[in-house]
Design goal:
By secondary structure, the chain is an alpha/beta fold. The chain has 8 helices and 14 strands. The protein has 2 domains: 144 residues, Rossmann fold (3-Layer(aba) Sandwich); 141 residues, LD-carboxypeptidase A C-terminal domain-like (Glucose Oxidase, domain 1, 3-Layer(bba) Sandwich), CATH 3.50.30. 25% of the residues lie in helices and 20% in strands. The two termini are 19 Å apart.
Length: 310
């Protein structure tokens, strides 16, 4: 794969821009998330009328959200962008997004933000961060249930020279040790990227797949769609999330059963139940677009083999 473009690392006292590009965020949760960023040593800022806007199930109209995203990507005052929450709507902003003149900067988010992360990787090879958001993770606090893992967040956003590793806190479905480019995100958004100009390239990837609120047969359908579209050919390994709120009727296959049945025959390492994305545990931060090693030797370890920031 082409060389990734890495953003400058965060430094103590740096300004962090908060934007709402998907669904509306709760004001109190946004405030708590900003307080947490302040405790981490950064200076969060947002435009109230944009960040707290509501228009149906969107955080404001498409022009309003698009303008906020473009401004955040082009401004010089902030060193990082944290999305306020996921939900739905970032896909509306991609076709008119032109950031050819913008330098890479930290973009942190998960869930619906996957669409934007896929776009930035495919079009510009930006490294982005599958990470907690201001009103979804950071608001619950460091190392707390439904909060975020402080160590992985700071490693991902501040290291410029060291490699680092983390325990994915999952279980092994298929053993092995592989290296590849760490990519992926929310399963629904990865599937719906098929046929678009920002469709995810998965050859040579350690592929993250996670989601919430899907029944086992819906996960089955999505995985089979990706498999039949050729997206699992050449994948080095899989990191599967917790898939909360995904239980089927009593006696039916679980999502874990589905993942084992479809993915294990591929012969690659598979980690199930990693604390990424939608999880009730402290959410790990994973840099997307960097070279990594996935290992099941003695646990469920992911080593980030190059800094995600410059």
């Amino acid at each position: 794969m082409p060389q990734p473009l890495k953003p400058p690392a965060l430094r103590p006292g740096d300004s962090v821009r908060i934007i709402s590009i998907s669904s509306p965020v709760d004001e109190e949760r946004l405030r708590k998330g900003c307080d947490e960023l302040t405790r981490l040593g950064y200076m969060p800022k947002y435009k109230r009328d944009d960040a707290l806007a509501r228009s149906g199930f969107f955080a404001g109209s498409t022009p309003v959200r698009g303008a906020a995203l473009n401004e955040a990507l082009l401004e010089d005052e902030s060193r990082a962008i944290f999305c306020s929450r996921g939900g739905y709507g970032s896909n509306y902003l991609l076709e008119d997004l032109d950031i050819a003149q913008s330098s890479p900067r930290i973009l942190a988010g998960y869930s619906d933000i996957t669409s934007l992360q896929l776009f930035l990787w495919r079009k510009f090879r930006w490294v982005t961060f599958y990470a907690p958001m201001a009103g979804s993770g950071l608001d619950k606090g460091a190392d707390a249930p439904e909060g975020y893992d402080r160590e992985s967040l700071l490693h991902a956003l501040t290291d410029t020279k060291q490699t680092w590793g983390l325990d994915l806190r999952g279980e092994v479905l298929s053993h092995g040790v592989v290296e590849g480019t760490l990519l992926g995100g929310c399963l629904t958004l990865i599937e719906t990227s098929l046929g678009t100009p920002w469709e995810l390239e998965t050859n040579g990837a350690i592929l993250i797949l996670e989601d919430r609120g899907m029944k086992p047969w819906q996960v089955d359908r999505a995985l089979m769609h990706l498999k039949q579209a050729g997206k699992f050919r050449g994948v080095a390994g899989f990191i599967m999330g917790d898939f909360p709120e995904c239980a089927g009727p009593a006696g039916s296959e679980t999502v874990k059963d589905v993942a084992r049945r479809i993915l294990a025959p591929l012969g690659t390492p598979i980690i199930w139940g990693a604390a990424v994305g939608h999880t009730q545990r402290p959410m790990l931060t994973l840099p997307l677009g960097v070279w990594a090693r996935l290992s099941t030797d003695g646990g469920t370890r992911l080593d980030i083999l190059e800094p995600a920031c410059s």
